[in-house]
Amino acid sequence: MKEAETESSRPANYTQATTGPERDMNLSNKEGKVTMRTAPRIVLVVLFALLALDPAPAAAQQAPPTTATQPLSLSSVLNTHLSVCEFEVVATAQAMPEDKYSFAPANGNFKGVRTFAQQVKHLATVNNRLAEGLMGEAPPTAPDEGITSNGPDAIQTKDQIMQYLKESFAHMHKAIGTINADNGLTPLKDSPAPFLRTRASLAMFVCTHAMDHYGQMVEYMRMNGLTPPMSAPSPSSNPPSNPPQKPGGN
Q1: Residue 188 near residue 197, CB atoms below 8 Å
Q2: How do the pLDDT tens digits run along the chain, 250 residues long?
Q3: 3 state DSSP class of 28
């Protein structure tokens, strides 16, 4: 894959925001100059600041503080956000009974959607493919392990799927650990997803993708009369209103 972006590699909703690479990446004024060499560092500093200031969800407070004690860096902040996603996804996959892993919605427009097991396996498969992209590892060539697949057919039982899921997050944590201010915005020569051209974008997208499928996993649980773990300790968001009292009543 060429490093230069082509029209065919862009998402359908992509729009060209720049008017000229030299003018946009070589801005100058009386106070100073931003060049193509310094611009990536400035963007990473801004990204790091935004992620560091972002308050973590309440559920993250329950997660093991595996990255909280590390010195602050771009990779440690990204790994902390991944830990939040991991905690919620793994807890939900664990809470679903094994006899419900084959469940897929049938009422409504759900023809051909993934089962709960396939949701989890696909999520884990994408984790692995993106981690390989970050680390320069060669991806497997088997059709059932492609980035859009539902994961290896040989992985069937809940125990096998849970192990596959946990190992995929460990793989991604290791991969994110290789990101730093020098390589975070360097274009990748062979990205596993054409619209994700840098290490920073791959690391951020893995959480976006995981939470997309986490939301579907939560709905599958509720369709089976189960309360997702992240909702179990919380009070109702819509408590019943107090019934109107009769005139003159206590």
Answers
A1: yes
A2: 434 444 444 444 433 333 333 333 333 344 444 444 444 454 454 444 444 444 444 444 454 545 456 678 889 999 999 999 999 999 999 999 999 999 999 988 999 999 999 999 999 999 999 999 999 999 999 999 999 999 999 999 999 999 999 999 999 999 999 999 999 999 988 888 888 899 999 999 999 999 999 999 999 999 999 999 999 876 667 777 766 666 665 5
A3: strand
Closest of 240, 226, 214, 249 to residue 82, by C-alpha: 214
91 contacts 64 by C-beta, under 8 angstroms: no
Domains in the chain, ordered, with CATH?
23-223 (1.20.120.450)
Tokens standing for residue 6: 């082509």
What CA–CA distances, in Å, run from 68 to 30, 78, 84? 41, 11, 11
